[in-house]
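Figure S7 source data.
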Amino acid sequence: MAAGAGTRISARQLIGLIGELDPGKPVYDALAERVRLLVTDGRIPAGTRLPSEREFAVQTGRSRTTIVAAYQSLRDAGYLVSRRGSGSRVTLPGSDRRNAAAGSRTIDFARAVPPPVEGLRDIVVRAGHRMAEALDGPGFDLLGNVTLRGSIAQRYTERGLPTTPDQIMVTMGGQHAISLIAHTFLARADVALIEAPTYPHAYDALRRAGARLVTTPVTTAGWDLEHLRDTLAAARPALAYLVPDFHNPTGASMPPEVRVEVARAARALGTTLVIDETTADLNIDRAWDDGPFARHAKRRSPSDGSGIITVGSLSKSIWGGLRLGWIRADTAVIRRLANARPAGDLGTPQMEQILGEQILAAMPQLLGRRQELLIEHRTVLTRLLQEHLPQWIVPHPEGGLSLWVQLDKPASSALTSLSEAHGLSLVAGPKFSVDGAFERHIRLPFTSPIADLEDGVLLLAQAWKQFSVRDVAGPEAPRLPSMV
Ligand SMILES: Cc1ncc(COP(=O)(O)O)c(C=O)c1O
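Tokens for the predicted pyridoxal-5'-phosphate complex:
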């Protein structure tokens, strides 16, 4: 992301984010379309002030008339508000308006949000009578209630990583955990290593905590261990954020022997590993399970987590509406997090935790149901894509919630804009990296209802066809004219 909400984006940053323009449109229109996309997918946060029309015209080498027309088009579509004296700020128009523009409802291929796992409704109903217990105390706590922490710790222990309740902090989801860890353990200008691509809200949290980011590649085939080790050695990051099980967005799994090496390299350099296992319970058909990554920590004493902090969550395996996650770490780390936490929030609601206890007791059955849904949905989306977009390379992930699809042209952002006009919301590949790469990729979640997967792929194919027809340069070298 180039700028935080309420801040200013420079003309150079904006030009970098806009990249290549769609050749099939007048320049002002193509420019406005790109800015709309950047605002919609959050790469330019709402509230960001754009450069003045005059400055932007000078920096892009375009005529003032073109830039004025682009800004006007953004204003007309509700993406820009200009006030004399305070410049032009981007905004998000109401979703009603977007849906109206599409002429119907919008199908959501942007969020990888699965439905509540089958069986959850019964658990909620049964837990209902226990909710009143929350009224006996303050109803929230910083560390989490001891029963739930005990159940989470027991699950780690059963999976091969001995854990005590005081090594667990219950959080309000995985994202909350990542943000709390980032703000507690990073100082301004510390280096943090992330994967490319990666889960965007994680790198955003690290950056907002002041980190300078370095990246290591991950593909659908996995990690490049040599690159990862070299980058750790060269950058000596304070923290490395990794998603080793059913990596978002590629779906890749880190092989056990690579885990051993990564843990060893990080330990030798004093780099804290933040291992995000939010997606680790989303196995579809991976034949092996190496247990929690932190099994590879070398403990020197019972209170020594050897620099591995694990993040977990029920959002993906059970339901995102629960907002229940956790951090597993050495007890000293948990204490530091507990000291830092009240600056951001005062604790996790007790009612949610009561439900969490019931869910953990039924975890094996619930995960079995989740797996059935994922198998079916992955199969359907794969078949639809092979049928309607055979020119794309569709991977076969062994777990996770989405397909990291390779397009036959580097046009992910253009596809995202066009799809929006067709009533399909997507997140363009570049959103998953900090440097705007991945124009050849799009993440397609298979979490929507089957009917939406079917309708969504038809819309996707229509949008791609429209794009291909307009692409005068041919499929292999779509040299869209650069805007600068
Ligand atoms: C890898 C990863 N970590 C964390 C999160 C956030 O999880 P939660 O909804 O529990 O905050 C997500 C959500 O997409 C994710 O994919």
